[in-house]
Write a structure and sequence with these properties.
alpha/beta; Rossmann fold; 4 strands; two-stranded parallel sheet; single chain; 152 residues; 7 helices
C-alpha cells in the first residue's frame, strides 16, 4: 500500500497496524529500508491503542487530512466486538478532508453454501468470518461524505 500511496504522494507517511506478531515481524523486515513507513501492533477492535501509539503519533498527524484503510479486517470482527463503534471512534479523530477506505465480505448475493463453507474454513481460526449486508457495510461510512469513484 505504501508503494501505491507514494506513486501519488512521494513523501507519504504510512503506518501499518496488525495484531498478528508474525505478520508484524515480516512487515518490519520488508519495511526496514522504507523511510516514514512503520508497522506497529494494534487491533481494529481497539483503535485507541494504535491511534495513540507513540510511533504512530510521531509519524501521522491526525489534525491534518489522512487516509485510513480498514482492509480485509472488519469481516473478522463480530457485531459483539462493536466494529461500527471502532470505525466511528477513528472517524471522530480524522480531520476534515480525510478518507476512509474499507473492504468487507457481504452476504448480499452470496449463496448460503458459499457462506457456510467460508465460515467453516474460519471456525478454527483466531477470528470468525463475519458476513454483513451492504446496508450494514454502508453504516461504517456514517458521518462521511461518499466520494465518487475516480477513473484509474
Amino acid at each position: 500500500m505504501h508503494e501505491v500511496a507514494r506513486s501519488v504522494i512521494p513523501h507519504a507517511r504510512i503506518a501499518y497496524i496488525d495484531n498478528d506478531p508474525l505478520v508484524l515481524a515480516h512487515a518490519r523486515v520488508m519495511l526496514a529500508d522504507a523511510p516514514d513507513v512503520i508497522a506497529v501492533r494494534g487491533d481494529a477492535r481497539r483503535p485507541f491503542d494504535f491511534i495513540t501509539h507513540d510511533a504512530v503519533r510521531e509519524l501521522i498527524n491526525f489534525s491534518r487530512p489522512v487516509g485510513v484503510l480498514f482492509a480485509a479486517v472488519l469481516h473478522f470482527v463480530t457485531d459483539g466486538e462493536h466494529p461500527h463503534g471502532a470505525v466511528a471512534w477513528v472517524r471522530d479523530r480524522m480531520a476534515a478532508g480525510s478518507y476512509l477506505v474499507l473492504s468487507h465480505v457481504t452476504s448480499d448475493g452470496t449463496g448460503p453454501a458459499a457462506m457456510a463453507a467460508i465460515q467453516d474454513a474460519y471456525k478454527e481460526a483466531s477470528a470468525p468470518a463475519v458476513f454483513r449486508t451492504a446496508a450494514d457495510i454502508a453504516w461504517f461510512f456514517d458521518g462521511f461524505d461518499l466520494a465518487p469513484p475516480r477513473p484509474g
